[in-house]
Amino acid sequence: MNDxxxxxIAAGEIPSTKVYEDETVLxxxxxxxxxxxxxxxxxxxxxxxxxxxxxEDDATLAHMWRVAAAVAKSENIxxxxxxxxxxxxTDAQQTVKHLHLHVLGGKAMAGEMA
Length: 114
Ligand code: 5GP
Ligand code: ZN
What we know:
It is a single chain. 20% of the residues lie in helices and 22% in strands. The chain has helices at 5-10, 58-74, and strands spanning 18-21, 25-29, 37-43, 82-85, 101-105. The model has no long low-confidence stretch (mean pLDDT 96).
């Protein structure tokens, strides 16, 4: 996906502040953080959204949640609490069409989710 921002970040063509990386997944700090900890977890392979994900990507998609939890641990936000969010489509305000998890923490968040 040539024109995808997160594919370019995954390929190192656009710099990011990485917090975790392995063969299939990258975690990096959001450029406009909405909480003291705001990390994005992406598959290195382009997947546009959860509804488009194929079965062959199941292992990577499951691994993303494990990485998100590991990020929460390394950011020391497990005890205070954290939120994992994935915006899907227009109504949910998804702006980058490359599947990602937001890991948010370090402050008391709003009770409402929508
Ligand atoms: P979405 O709105 O699609 O759920 O989340 C996209 C996120 O990507 C936003 O929180 C936005 O701040 C972040 N973002 C957009 N462009 C960049 C960038 O160039 N670098 C980084 N690190 N984050 C970005
Ligand atoms: Zn992409």
